[in-house]
Design brief:
The protein is α+β, with helices and mostly antiparallel strands. It is built from nine helices and 22 strands. It has helices at about 35-45, 95-100, 105-120, 135-150, 165-180, 195-200, 215-220, 225-230, 330-335, and strands spanning about 5-10, 15-20, 25-30, 50-55, 60-65, 70, 80, 155, 185-190, 200-205, 210-215, 235-245, 250, 255-260, 270-275, 280, 290-300, 305-310, 320-325, 340, 345-350, 355-360. The strands form four sheets. Strands 7-8-9-3-10-11 form a six-stranded mixed beta sheet, sandwiched between helices. Strands 16, 17, 18, 19, 20 and 21 form a six-stranded antiparallel beta sheet that branches. Helix 3 (about 105-120) packs across helix 4. The two termini are about 35 Å apart.
Length: about 350
């Protein structure tokens, strides 16, 4: 199973040029709004026509600008789960699922529809209309309809965007199970890094219509090649760097010097560290441990984010150098130890050199 995408499309003020390969491992397309994620799916499905390039699915040419080949949607064997599900409001669950199954005997049609209804665990709801279903049920019907045609590639365009967190988590698990049983190629689009990381094995990072990075999710997450990729993989702390020597850099925006392992690439431009990879230092004399003043906090249900300045701040300062996320219980246990003059928290902030991320641009 393989899909080759190498296409270009010109827009006013936006040059779209995307090339990647996909196989049986679920591929995630990650990018911010307007990066070209949905456009890529629409071009694969035949809903949009690229200006140039090729799309080849399992040896079949779906689109080739030079050969003037552009198969219609119905001949591409592509299943598409739209963000808003796009169910037909005047059709029942069974009719929606069976809509694209044309020219087959009615008995086989009923069997296929019943099989998909059982797969999505909606037995007994065959005759309900979309307005009679919850958002999660609608999503499952849309997924069953996309799979009913036995597609060679399944395209999922932000399928959890319209769901609340509880329902999203439940359906995410169900989708991962469905995709593990699916024998074709699947492409999952999202702007949510956590979601993509859980569902997909490989990633393509899109930015402004171009591929910024492609590869195994662990490699991209651990070693993002550019500042854009680091930000899209939710690295909150990034600074321009300057080499002091082979073993030390200056993090310009953070205002500190960091000991590092020697690097072969002296052209590296940025250094970063994820907000949950920061540690407490045992002593201010230890390597890469700095006095960090807590200038603000943001409390969520299970975690607290500390906004840290490496220079003693003014009262009510809103400027900070880095942010540090930790479990609330951990913070509650240690915060009194680091109270300074009953006004500030001054912490020993450790930026472990093994946790640092280096970027080329």
């Amino acid at each position: 199973m393989n899909l080759l995408v190498d296409i270009e499309k010109n827009f006013r003020g936006f040059d779209y040029k995307v090339a990647f390969k996909a196989n049986e491992n679920t591929l995630g397309l990650l990018g911010s709004s307007g990066s070209g994620k949905s456009m890529t799916l629409r071009c694969i499905a035949g809903l949009e026509k690229p200006d140039r390039g090729r799309i080849v699915l399992n040896g079949r040419i779906l689109f080739d600008s030079e050969k003037r080949i552009n198969l219609i949607c119905q001949k591409r064997k592509v299943g598409f789960l739209f963000q808003n599900y796009a169910l037909f409001p005047n059709m029942t669950v069974a009719e929606n699922i069976g809509f694209a199954l044309n020219n087959i005997p009615k008995e086989i049609l009923r069997e296929k529809v019943a099989e998909k209804i059982s797969m999505i665990q909606l037995d007994g709801l065959e005759n309900r209309y979309p307005y009679q279903l919850s958002g999660g049920q609608q999503q499952r019907v849309a997924l069953a309809r996309a799979l009913a045609i036995e597609p060679e590639v399944l395209l999922l365009d932000e399928p959890f965007a319209a769901l609340d967190n509880h329902l999203r988590n439940h359906l995410e698990k169900q989708l991962i199970k469905t995709l593990s049983d699916y024998k074709g190629i699947s492409i999952f689009v999202s702007h949510n890094m956590e979601e993509v990381y859980r569902v997909c094995k490989r990633l393509v990072i899109l930015s402004e219509g171009n591929v910024e990075a492609e590869g195994e999710k662990e490699e991209i997450f651990n070693n993002p090649p550019t500042r854009t990729v680091a930000r899209l993989t939710e690295c909150k702390n990034i600074s321009t760097l300057k080499f002091v020597n082979d073993y030390e850099i200056e993090a310009i925006e953070w205002g500190c010097r960091l000991k590092i392992d020697p690097k072969n690439n002296m052209e590296l431009k940025h250094v970063g560290i994820r907000d949950n990879h920061i540690d407490f230092g045992e002593s201010f004399d230890d390597e890469n441990v700095f006095k960090g003043w807590v200038v603000d906090t943001l409390i969520s249900l299970q975690t607290i984010t500390l906004y840290i300045s490496f220079n003693e701040p003014l009262i009510n300062s809103i400027s900070y150098d880095i942010q540090w996320e930790m479990i609330k219980e951990k913070w509650d246990k240690i915060k009194d130890k680091y109270t300074y003059k009953n006004e500030y928290f001054m912490l020993p902030v450790k930026l472990n050199k093994e946790r640092l991320i280096f970027m080329e641009k």
